[in-house]
Design goal:
Distance between the termini: 8 Å
Strand order of the largest sheet: 2-3-1-4-7
Helix content: 40-55%
Structural class: alpha/beta
Largest sheet: 5 strands, parallel
Strand content: 5-15%
Radius of gyration: 18 Å
Shape: globular
Length: 215
């Protein structure tokens, strides 16, 4: 299977599409955010350092994130194909990732960008609700993503919650900042010939069908 980088603006459904790929094709889903949280939860020496930085609002260095990512990519389950989620976030991380790929004798086969305009993304963000128990996501405004019973998880039957930062003002700020930061990353992978832009304006099933065509 291919090794994939997933790139998408806020509320574009990257998590949903990753879950579908994992369930249908057996990809390993690697999130740099999860790697950091795991290190903190295990209270390793590095985890305590990360936790202290987070509490002080200090950004985690590229060196720390790269080291954790390299360790995770070296695991056996990465050999069958993986989805890289949340990295690279900055242009300089593209170069760091390239170095990691060379060291591990791996390659990124395709970079998928889930393209979505601000208006559609904001509509999805403001309707986003999540199960606090299993993490499954729903959307109260999208017919295909609504829970079967209002505000209850289909799997756990517990009350769904929304993110405190899912409001119009904060979303616009996050969206515009993301678009500004992602442009050089997209250009980098476009020049390498591995960028594929996926029209993400339809339903999750529509988007998944387009992703399947690429992979």
């Amino acid at each position: 299977m291919k090794n994939i980088i997933f790139i998408a603006p806020p509320a574009a459904g990257k998590g949903t599409q990753s879950d579908l790929l994992v369930k249908k094709y057996g990809f390993t889903h690697i999130s740099t955010g999860d790697l950091l949280r795991k290190e903190v939860a295990e209270q390793t020496e590095l985890g305590r350092e990360i936790e202290e930085k987070m509490q002080k609002g200090i950004l985690i260095s590229n060196e720390i994130v790269s080291a954790l990512l390299k360790k995770r990519l070296s695991a056996k389950d990465s050999e069958a194909g993986y989805i890289l989620d949340g990295y690279p976030r900055k242009y300089e991380q593209c170069k760091l990732l390239e170095s990691i790929m060379q060291e591990l004798d791996m390659q990124i086969d395709v970079v998928l960008y889930l393209d979505m305009d601000e208006k559609t993304a904001m509509h999805r963000a403001l309707g986003r609700i999540t199960c606090p128990k299993c993490g499954r996501g729903f959307n109260k405004y999208e017919e295909a993503m609504k829970p079967k019973n209002e505000n209850l998880c289909d799997d756990c039957n517990v009350e769904l919650t929304s993110r405190s930062d899912d409001n119009e003002e904060s979303f616009k700020l996050r969206f515009n900042q993301y678009i500004e930061e992602v442009e050089p990353i997209l250009n980098y992978y476009k020049e390498l010939g591995i960028l594929r832009v996926i029209d993400n304006s339809g339903t999750p099933d529509d988007t998944f069908a387009k992703i399947e065509e690429v992979i």
